[in-house]
Design a protein that fits this description.
Helix 4 (156-164) packs parallel to helix 6 (199-206). The strands form four sheets. This protein has a nine-stranded mixed beta sheet. It folds into two domains: 5-9 and 60-250, Putative cyclase (Glucose Oxidase, domain 1, 3-Layer(bba) Sandwich), CATH 3.50.30.50; 21-57, no CATH class. The longest helix has 12 residues, at 27-38. With 251 residues, it is an alpha/beta fold. The termini are close together. It is built from six helices and 15 strands. It is globular. A hairpin with a 2-residue loop joins strand 5 and strand 6.
Length: 251
Amino acid sequence: MKLIDLSIPLSPAVKEPLPPSITYHSHEEGAAQGAQILGIEKEAFRNGKAWATETVSANTHAGTHVDAPWHYGETSEGKPARTIDEMPLEWFYGDAVLFDFSSHPPGYEISSKDLKQQLKEMDYTLKPYDIVLVRSDADKKIYDESYAFLHAGVSAEATRWLLDQGIKVVGTDGWGWDIPLNIQAKQHMAEPDKGVMWEAHYVGIEKEYCQIEKLANLDQIPVRHGFQVSCFPVNIEKASGAWTRPVAYIE
């Protein structure tokens, strides 16, 4: 079994709009902390050194993460939208299918026609609970100042079509699932009456689903289907999303 890491690091160096901050605490600081907590001298620890730790301040949508239905709106399918700690674990492990749009330019909007064409080429039919992955190779540009705007995105129409096939979890190596927000904003300014902002995300109000954003290394998966993915989110109470370290399992 070959395992492929599908995550980018949680790092302040990644050029995303909401980067995390990380403070690194030394072994000496760990000893001082332990001494303060326990009411003993720092030298009680070997060589005055104890645990190294880090303090991380991060938005739940920084780094590779899973969006919960609550991220898209207050309701989903006419019921209160579920938060990440309420999602069934069964959704986050299973057979996966890889769609490749790495040859398309940033901002390309993927339609259901595009997805059906690639499925035909794969000779594969989606089944309920398949995990759908979309490759645009945006992960190769995580240190580029324009990283958030360099991916192909999925249309609301294509998202609805995927959910109609019984798909519950989708993922992209782009910063977002929709086409880049700067392109959406230009479209909105050109036609203010047309609801173009964040359209694919809003599909989650109609039909419940989760999406993974900021995947990586999809180019290392040697097959388009016939592999598995795990992408369990961190259990954060009442959160709209949570970090994940997705892994592809290749026989």
